[in-house]
Design brief:
425 residues; alpha/beta; five-stranded mixed beta sheet; four-stranded mixed beta sheet; 17 helices; 13 strands; 41% helix; globular
């Protein structure tokens, strides 16, 4: 969003010695307008809209829920913040959004404490990273979207391959499978959020990052980055085809649905869609963990965070709605068919809802351990959000695979990232 280019104003840190008060009582009445993503599992939107309408009828609140594609949300957020008017509540899909829009968000520390205390605490540090600004809860985490692998078990079995556990396995096995006519696919461009997620995950697993832990010092120009980019170049040449250079977020899904792909990195929405459209192919598709690299197993994940806007005339209603939403949280997870990964510890107890009852998905029960967000190993700052929104990491990979000049690609990314961070000093 346009607002991401401006440094966020600092807020006063929360007084840790002073317990947050309970969310205020709500007597009913008024109206609420919500802006949310169009869920990748359409049945979830149907469920939520009915749930919200029923809550509104019970509490005499007129409810309006607007769903738009996730890629179209950032400019809409920025436009409403610029005018100080619009929806009462936002479902933020970018991990740095609370940091970027903190001035326009209501302090929800009371609600976050209430919900966290009731459900065994929040998954950390993920929840604080996406929900807090300067120690104050400005958003209430809804869920995160894991980023595992979807692979063709029949093709793996036919070639005596086990599920890929490391990026080295992905390269070796991917080369073999491409030779058999079944390439793997990761988007390499500025059209796909998947590209941001995959290539950031790769960097972190090699011990590289575009910023240091302080969240302020650029760090992309490193031997670890060059090693990771060199790996990406080899993976592209040996295991992929050039179609990945023009994919949007649906490209890898379509390749898997066509029966040609052997392995993609994507949330389980790809499998869920194929289960409905081609049940026989779906039986051959399994899910495995995100690959580990030399320095560990990390995955850049997308998120969902509830924000209440400070121009709302019905903040008590918004807090009351969210209080009851978390009471219905198990049903929300079920309706998402396991796509919504819980951010509350109570709901991560094994066997987890949906994930713990399907042998294909059991590995995803521990995905919170690998989950990271933009700006890792530091917090998701406005500068980190700008790096993501300008696709710097996937564009660096794209330059490398097209020019085969790793140093030049890293130099280009270094200039871009250092210029972004310089604006926030």
């Amino acid at each position: 969003p346009a607002d991401a280019a401006k440094p966020a104003d600092a807020a006063k840190p929360a007084d840790a010695s002073k317990p947050a008060a309970a969310a205020p009582a709500f007597a009913g009445g008024g109206s609420l307008k919500l802006l949310m993503r169009s869920h990748f599992i359409p049945a979830w939107d149907v469920w939520f809209d009915k749930w919200a309408a029923d809550w509104g009828a019970k509490n005499k609140v007129e409810i309006q829920v607007d769903h738009i594609l996730a890629g179209e949300l950032p400019p809409k957020w920025a436009a409403e913040v610029a005018t100080g008017d619009g929806h009462d509540m936002m479902g933020f899909t970018q991990s740095g959004a609370v940091n970027v829009f903190n001035k326009s968000l209501v302090d929800v520390s009371d609600l976050a404490k209430q919900v966290g205390d009731k459900h065994g605490g929040w998954v950390e540090p993920l929840s604080s990273n996406i929900g807090k600004f300067d120690g104050v809860w400005k958003g209430v985490p809804g869920y995160f979207i894991d980023f595992p692998a979807n692979y063709r078990k029949d093709l793996f079995d036919a070639n005596n391959l086990k599920p890929f556990d490391t990026w080295d396995d992905v390269l070796k096995g991917g080369k073999l499978l491409k030779e058999k006519g079944n390439p793997l696919g990761i988007a390499i461009n500025q059209k796909s959020n998947d590209a941001n997620n995959s290539w950031s995950s790769l960097l972190w697993s090699y011990g590289a990052s575009y910023v240091k832990e302080d969240g302020k010092t650029p760090a992309i120009n490193s031997p670890e980055t060059k090693e990771a980019v060199k790996y990406a170049l080899q993976l592209y040449k040996d295991a992929m085809t050039n179609e990945v250079l023009s994919w949007d977020d649906t490209g890898n899904n379509q390749m898997l649905a066509s029966g040609r792909a052997s392995w993609i990195q994507n949330p389980i929405s790809s499998l869920r869609t194929i289960e409905k459209d081609n049940p026989e192919l779906a039986k051959k598709i399994y899910i495995s963990n995100t690959p580990a690299g030399p320095k560990g197993r990390f995955a850049s994940v997308s998120v969902d965070v509830w924000g209440i806007m400070n121009w709302s005339k019905n903040v008590p209603a918004a807090k009351a709605l969210l209080t009851e939403y978390y009471a219905a949280y198990p049903e929300s997870v079920k309706q998402s068919e396991g796509y919504n990964q819980p951010v509350l510890m109570e709901f991560r107890k094994k066997p987890m809802l949906v994930l713990g009852t399907d042998p294909k998905l059991e590995a995803l029960q521990d995905f919170d351990k690998a989950a990271r967000v933009v700006g890792n190993p530091g917090p998701p700052t406005p500068a980190a959000a700008e790096v993501e929104q300008n696709w710097i990491i996937p564009l660096m990979i794209a330059q490398a695979v097209q020019s085969e000049n790793v140093d030049q690609a890293v130099d280009w990314a270094t200039q871009k990232i250092e210029a972004i961070y310089a604006k926030y000093k």
